[in-house]
Amino acid sequence: MGKYIYRTVLQIVPVLFIISLIVFILVHVTGDPVNLMLPDTATPEEREILTAALGLDQPLYIQYGLYMKNLLSGDFGTSFRYNESALPIVLERLPASFELAGAAMLIAVVLAVPLGILSAVKRNSLLDLILSSISVLGKAMPNFWVGIMLILLFSVSLGMLPVSGRGTLQHLVLPAITLGTGVSVEMMRLIRSSMLEILGQDYIRTARSKGLWETVVINKHALRNALIPVVTITALQLTNLVSGALVTETVFAWPGMGQLLVQAVYTHDMAIVQAAVFVIALMVIFVNLASDIVYGLLDPRIKYR
Known about the structure:
This protein is mainly alpha-helical and 305 residues long. The protein has two domains: 2-86, no CATH class; 87-298, MetI-like (MetI-like fold, Orthogonal Bundle), CATH 1.10.3720. Helices cover 77% and strands 1% of the residues. The chain is built from 14 helices and two strands, in the order αααααββααααααααα. It has helices at residues 2-10, 12-29, 33-37, 44-53, 60-72, 86-121, 126-140, 143-157, 169-199, 202-209, 214-243, 246-251, 257-266, 270-298; strands at 78-79, 84-85. Strands 1-2 form a two-stranded antiparallel ribbon. A hairpin with a 4-residue loop joins strand 1 and strand 2 (84-85). Helix 6 (86-121) crosses helix 9. The longest helix has 36 residues, at 86-121. The radius of gyration is 24 Å and the shape is flat.
């Protein structure tokens, strides 16, 4: 396991190099940063001064070399919107994104695991049909629509919860439910299908033939093996919740990294975009590594050589 982790960490270097190249190309494709940073009334002399200050008068390969040199020192450039270094701005938004993602994932797990197990155990029953229909309906509803409906019901009509912002537990409820329900329906369907496959295995029939209680068979023997594909989808969904909750954070004005990234793209603040992309890439890499380690803990038969 130690050698596997070491090799995986080493693979981060070429992955980040490829990401840096892609981001560098995209930044230059989106347009001239000088035109984005200066007003229309700027003189040609002012444009030349800013072009030289940004190093855009150099050949492309020299610009990329300077770009990589700055990245190695953690310098992603200065945000012209905030007039500050980009990386600290992105890192400042991470706690809010982690808070929302953690609450949403907690809701998803609490809903998906018992309902998925129940749907598998009661296969082809009326309850299974109802739960399957709910999961299909939940998958068909976009997050922004769910969020708007929750705002209309709990904030506008009932006045129970705040519409937007962050600060108290009440502010967290609506955006967490909006994200958590969308993830839970996908997890529930996966748990159901995984449990159905496991429940048909020989060792489950052997456990039942020994006279073990059904709860022991389900929770101890079946659920642990059924969780392996669930770990994969949980890892992917967690990174999506942290970095990709763009619409939900915008609807609820949640000050996370998703909202920051949307605003940076809209205003062409490429320093923020570069820093956010690298932070997201690192999160995806390390979350996938953590999921691989959890595989080995859940199933001792899995070995990494």
